[in-house]
Design a protein that fits this description.
The protein is α/β, with parallel strands linked by helices. It is about 55% helix and about 10% strand. The chain has an eight-stranded mixed beta sheet with strand order 3-2-4-1-5-6-7-8, with helices on both faces. Bound molecules: guanosine-5'-diphosphate and magnesium ion (MG).
Length: about 350
């Protein structure tokens, strides 16, 4: 995960460590006790400034030179900017990370006992962590529990473009929920693609979860509606609605998606993105958010993503949290998102 970005960050970190070290070496310990010159006799006509006073001033200047200035960091911030953009990080997010580094380092006094390597890593890490921290919390299990108390199944709809990993993600989520003791029901509302229904059925059979379906070409919203009615009647805890892949530019399919949302009134609308598509995934998430409003993202194919730009950018740009990460093709390859996962992939040994 993130091998390329990790290498680039390592180079930035090394350069930053060297720069902080240099700043530290430029400084000399401030004199612990400054010997002031004896008071000048009133009658003496001495030089305008006593030589010892000049020495004191020089010492003070050396101390202040231990502070990092923006100019000290310019080239390193540029390297970081390029590394982030090459990794397909969204521009505003790359800028935010740079600002974060600046706000932590510019004007910071480098202590003589400072561990320079540790400081460089700490600053880079926390600057990235700040863009990864979810703007709000969305808790899947909490949502299901709340609906359960109301005697209703939770309804969750998944959408995104074709091939990103929606159907696989639904199977993973269903398996995860079943392992927590919930009863999930799947709705085969991808009635558009030839193998849409069969693919969901194939996954469902493997994980042992039932599917509600109609014939191919049926109204997707009607399939969702049926599934919810079935879940209510049979006491399922959660309905996971699979939908056809659609480009945000496909007017008819986007209208179909809005209809599914109107009819199913989902408790959660989850955008599924492919991490490998980098900033495209971010643009798609924005387009789906504008069309129906998303509550969060599941980012798939993290295991194959060397760049990391989508993971760094998507929650910051959409203002909605990443809920889970898909980390492989197996049903167990799903992890709950935590910023530390990304940070340890980027900075771990
Ligand atoms: N490596 C990897 N492959 C994945 C992941 N999630 C899905 N895939 C693969 O991506 C392909 C498309 O997945 P699918 O669920 O059919 O996408 P959909 O068209 O959005 O429903 C399949 O070959 C999946 O096995 C993941 O997290 N990691
Ligand atoms: Mg699918």
């Amino acid at each position: 995960m993130f091998e390329k970005l990790k290498q680039k960050l390592k180079a930035v970190k090394q350069k930053l460590t060297g720069r902080i070290q240099k700043k530290k070496e430029e400084a000399e310990p401030a004199p612990s006790k400054v010997e002031l010159p004896p008071p000048t006799p009133a009658k003496a006509v001495g030089p305008p400034e006593h030589p010892r006073l000049t020495k004191v001033k020089r010492a003070i200047k050396k101390v202040t030179r231990r502070e990092l200035s923006e100019a000290d960091l310019d080239d390193i911030l540029w390297d970081l900017h390029v590394a982030l953009l090459e990794s397909d990080t969204a521009l505003p997010v790359a800028q935010k990370i740079i600002e974060n580094v600046k706000s932590e380092l510019v004007g910071r006094e480098i202590g003589l006992r400072e561990d320079t390597r540790e400081l460089a890593e700490k600053v880079l890490k926390s600057s990235i962590e700040r863009v990864l921290t979810p703007p709000c919390r969305v808790d899947l299990l909490e949502c299901i529990e709340r609906k359960k108390r109301e005697g209703e199944p939770a309804v969750i709809v998944f959408f995104g473009i074709n091939g990103v990993g929606k159907t696989t993600a639904i199977a993973k989520v269903a398996r995860y929920l079943a392992s927590k003791g919930y009863r999930p029901l799947l709705a085969a509302a991808d009635t558009f693609r030839a193998a849409g229904i069969e693919q969901l059925e194939m996954h469902a059979a493997k994980i042992g979860v039932p599917v509600v379906k109609q014939r191919r070409g049926a109204d997707a919203a009607a399939v969702a509606y049926d599934a919810i009615a079935h879940a209510r009647a049979r006491g399922f805890d959660v309905v996971l609605i699979d939908t056809a892949g659609r480009m945000q530019t496909d007017v008819d399919l986007m209208e179909e998606m809005k209809k599914i949302v109107r009819v199913a009134k989902p408790d959660l609308k989850i955008f599924v993105g492919d991490a490998l598509t980098g900033n495209d995934a971010v643009e798609q998430a924005l387009a789906f958010d504008r069309a129906v409003g998303i509550d969060g993202t599941i980012l798939c194919k993290m295991d194959a993503d060397a760049r990391g730009g989508a993971a760094l950018s998507i929650s910051q740009v959409t203002g909605k949290p990443i809920l889970m990460l898909g980390t492989g093709q197996g049903y167990e390859d799903l992890v709950e998102f935590r910023p530390e996962l990304i940070l340890s992939a980027l900075f771990g040994d």
